[in-house]
Amino acid sequence: MNTLSPAFKILTWGCQMNEDDSDQMASLLMQMGYRLAGEVAEADVILLNTCSVRAKPEHKVSTKLGELRILKEQNPDMIIGVCGCMAQRQGAAIRRRNPHIDLVIGTAQIERIPELICEVVRSRHPLTALDLPRAKDDAPVTPGRSTQAHYGKLKTFVPVTYGCDNFCSYCVVPYVRGKERSRQLSEIAEEVTGLASQGCKEVTLLGQNVNSYKSPDDGSTGFPELLARLNDIDGLQRIRFTTSHPKDLSDKLIEAMVTLPKVCRHIHLPMQAGDTDVLARMRRGYSVEHYLDLIASLRQAAPEIAISTDILVGFPGETEEQFRNTLQVIEDVRFDMAFMFAYNAIPKTAAAALPDQLTYQEKNARLAKVIELQNRITIEKNTEHIGQVFEVLVEGISPKDPTRICGLTSQNKTVNFEGVLQTIGKLIRVRVTESHLYGFVGETM
Ligand code: SAM
Ligand code: SF4
Ligand code: F3S
């Protein structure tokens, strides 16, 4: 007789928001008595937490669903669920193409997973749950949270806002994540206090645009006030946040970043394009000049700050000259790091209907150029730090080199160094001895 409890596996694509959602799903399944399976084939419940931001992550999910069909033929009791942004975007159509799927669960329905799984086990009928607050008068409900899957972790994500109201013309997120809603400040503070009391040292606050955070019980409490409240929590050592939208980055937030000691010296500030006309057609709500002013203010307030960005090339109608403007701004700003993407037309988004779509070859040739430029700058900037001493939060054995341990600087750069496991979870001083594209090698002091 098999005495083991039923097992689950969650496969995750996409951004940190999805990683956090997967942790929530894992917590709920553990509360139901499920244990984490080693392999997909051992799982009784498999959830695919998907991303729709570009075509590639959706293709990967389709391939995975093809593989799972074979497993399901061997084990018809296995429950397969598709969750996340692709489930929200494609809805019931995913099931029509993949009749072996039991559940299609939208981004605002995670809390219902236990109830939905029980119903499928009982009835053996597939179910779809896709309600999402998007209309103006929909209630701005935020989900309840469980920190079970975070227990014992040194660092975790904590969402502060859900959804997005910006509707950048290329982006699917507002359609699949619903309208923007902020969590109560007291609820966030309680969660972070609980995490810190369980040994968590670093939180990353999540939102598509954290700068527009507003506590629902008090409209005058914004993101800088939230940072100040979290900075006071005993045991917590570092606070990070992502993503900051340039149109809403205030002087008050820059001041909070430099005066609150636990807030890290790193900002991820997606520029997308270095040409004001392209930015206007992307509906980003700022000009290149405004973006450059923000960079100057950040560097003046905190010269040691690291700045990373997102760059999106090959937007419809982007001319050769406009692309060269982006290269020039990247050269001038000298970002520490960038996530770089070639534009994909995503159905439903405004930009998908624009004329003058670039060819796959044109977009990818531009992407290659921008990656080459930014990689050179990242290496040059990292080299400037050789010999400097950084405070590092030690995280564990280095995945790149098992003879070393590793951690992150306040600037979000990885450092590998020889050290002792007893320092895991502590802030220690490390001198940089070598620099690479990914970060540093160092020595303890
Ligand atoms: N909320 C963040 C912001 O406004 O900067 C960005 C979140 S989005 C999930 C992450 C990045 O994906 C974007 O900054 C953009 O560069 C990229 N992205 C979004 N839509 C895209 C598309 N249709 N094609 C290619 N890249 C895209
Ligand atoms: Fe997408 Fe723009 Fe919202 Fe970011 S701010 S999630 S790019 S619509
Ligand atoms: Fe994130 Fe992808 Fe959804 S980037 S918000 S998982 S579309």
Number of helices: 13
* Strands, count: 19
Bound molecule kinds, no repeats: S-adenosylmethionine, iron/sulfur cluster, FE3-S4 cluster
Shape: globular
Our Rg estimate from Cα atoms comes to 23 Å
Distance between the termini: 56 Å
What's the topology here?
Blueprint: E1 7-12, H1 16-31, E2 35-36, E3 45-50, H2 55-74, E4 79-83, H3 84-90, H4 93-97, E5 103-105, H5 113-123, E6 127-129, E7 155-159, E8 161-162, H6 173-177, E9 181-182, H7 185-197, E10 202-206, H8 223-231, E11 238-242, H9 251-259, E12 266-268, H10 276-281, H11 288-301, E13 306-313, H12 320-333, E14 337-342, H13 360-383, E15 389-397, E16 405-409, E17 414-418, E18 427-435, E19 439-444
Parallel strand pairs: 1-2, 1-3, 3-4, 4-5, 5-6, 7-10, 10-11, 12-13, 13-14, 17-19
Antiparallel strand pairs: 8-9, 15-16, 15-18, 16-17, 18-19
The structure holds S-adenosylmethionine, iron/sulfur cluster (SF4) and FE3-S4 cluster (F3S).
